Amino acid sequence: MFNTAIWKKTWGDQRVLVLSLVALWTTFPWIYIWLSSQIPMPVFQDVLLRAIPQDWQRLSGVPFTEVATHAGRVALAFVDPVIVLAATVWGITRGSDAVSGQLERGTLEMVLAQPVRRSAVFVTQALATTAAAALLCCVLFAAVFTAVSLGPWAGKVDAVRFVPPACNVFGLMVCMAGIAACVSAADSYRWRTIGILCGFYVFSILTKLVGRLSSSLGWVGYLSILNAYEPQRLVGDPATAWPLLASYDGVLLGLGLAAYALGAVLFSQRDLPAPL
Amino acid sequence: MIVHTDNLTKRYGAFTALDGCSLAVPQGEIFGLLGPNGAGKTTLLRLLLGFIRPTAGKATVAGFDCVHDSLAVRASTAYLPGEARLFRRMNGHQTLDFFSGLRRECRRDRATAVARRLDLDCSRQVARMSTGMRQKLALAVVLATDAALTILDEPTANLDPTARAEVLDLVREARAAGRTVIFSSHVLSEVESTCDRVAIVRAGRLVHEQSIADLRRSHRITARLTGSLGRIPVELEPHATLAEHANGTVVIESSDSLAPLLGWLSTLPLEEVQIEPVGLGGVYERFHGRTGALVAE
């Protein structure tokens, strides 16, 4: 089920993307915390608690009183598009390359002509992608940790509290990569795989918003994988944060692994079209 | 038989890509596969490798079922696709390293030696290689193995004449080492000079199979007579066929030694005579020429 040559090749394939995200996620927490520190806490609290309608609290997922703390403000970095979109783009990019990307480029033909199981190719790629996601989340946490410990808010926040949000980002990356790999395993065109995944992501955003804003359509929120991505809720009391993380990542990792498993079966059973 | 197919069929909805193909390829032979684009050659090769599943029929390679023992089939087979595409970010050396890692019996030193014979600069990145250089690199990957069966789908496409000759030499060397080669090509002269046997595929059906040795004994005799032809003697009938007879010109096709036929011809009132080998082109024309459809039916 594991192939060393495929493992090395996959790391080579994702090298540029990994290095780009390492650069982005190493610098982003520093910039974010420095920019946030430019707005003094009393001013921020005043704007958040008085100027913004309290109904909007439903969108944030946590009470504004929790957001209006140093930990709450740092936690907002994890729902910033720089983190969320980068994690999503990572998942879609790597997952879509698994089968349809290589079919489209025509490179899968020579690989599968060798004595290697299709499932081994698929699983090894999935392992390399997951390992890289774990590495990136470690980098993200390390950057947040150092920015919190050494930055303008040094001593005001316990940096270890950001382990659960980083783990939640990992869950999102694995989930998106797994679903993308599953679609890729059944498809022959990468552009179509990416299109389907973008549609799925937009659907997830919309269903989450509808579920949050409408009392009668609250159930719609459960159709969204982003319902299990709530890093801002994971910086509170560790006694509640870790069980909450377990439920969130249980959903995300469970969905991701199930999608990978289905993708492996689809890939092993399907006809492979001649290079396009 | 290293390759055996029995009524192998592949349909995509209403379209039949391969229709009831039954074929047997013995070990140590270079087997040519001929046919125009879309005839079903590549479908046959992809069925052998387990890339696609047959709608009906069965295929085995080295005794292994192509569907259920695909891994064992591919361990016994080296395959060069019609349009081999390699990883653009790797250079030639990295490509050879990668494929050596995937196939234990693929010897890296042999791959380097093949690349050198094909005059390939392996230090260049694949993305910066010409189409011909990429083809050479793919050939180095494929011809470096000891696989019992080597399948080459248009191996000389995009190659310069020197490299073409080298590839054909490598194919003959593979046969000399006891390996079997399936050689799919559109270049009839290459097939005729290299293969031991050929099969012609037309519209998904295997319409003709012939050994090259038999083909070399086949001749076409065009004669202009001043008198009547008469009947072909009974003893010559099994190997001589009257193909055309009009306006005093006769065309006779012979599939065996010419000597007895020439003896009979010398008794006829000949004005002029022309003897030429039928050649693979003549056979191919029979099935794929303008009148090919009628002949194949």
Which keywords apply here?
heterodimer; A: 276 residues; mainly alpha; 73% helix; B: 297 residues; alpha/beta; Rossmann fold; 4-stranded antiparallel β-sheet; 11 helices; disordered C terminus
Describe the structure.
- By secondary structure, chain A is mainly alpha-helical.
- Chain A has one domain (4-269).
- Chain A contains 11 helices and no strands.
- Chain A has helices spanning 4-37, 41-51, 57-60, 64-67, 70-75, 81-105, 108-112, 118-150, 163-186, 190-213, 238-269.
- In chain A, helix 1 packs antiparallel against helix 6, helix 6 packs antiparallel against helix 8 (118-150) and helix 6 packs parallel to helix 9 (163-186).
- Chain A is globular.
- Chain B is of the alpha/beta class and 297 residues long.
- Chain B has 2 domains: 3-214, 3-Layer(aba) Sandwich (Rossmann fold), CATH 3.40.50.300; 219-277.
- Chain B has 11 helices and 14 strands.
- Chain B has helices spanning 41-48, 70-75, 92-102, 108-117, 131-143, 161-176, 188-194, 212-217, 259-265, 279-288, 292-296, and strands at 3-12, 15-25, 30-34, 56-61, 64-65, 77-80, 149-153, 180-184, 197-202, 205-211, 219-225, 240-246, 249-254, 270-277.
- A 6-stranded mixed sheet of chain B has the order 6-7-8-3-9-10, sandwiched between helices.
- In chain B, strand 4 and strand 5 (64-65) form a beta hairpin.
- In chain B, helix 4 (108-117) crosses helix 5 (131-143).
- The longest helix of chain B has 16 residues, at 161-176.
- Chain B is elongated, with a radius of gyration of 22 Å.
- The two termini of chain B are 29 Å apart.
- At the A-B interface, helix 1 and helix 7 of A face helix 2, strand 6 and helix 3 of B.
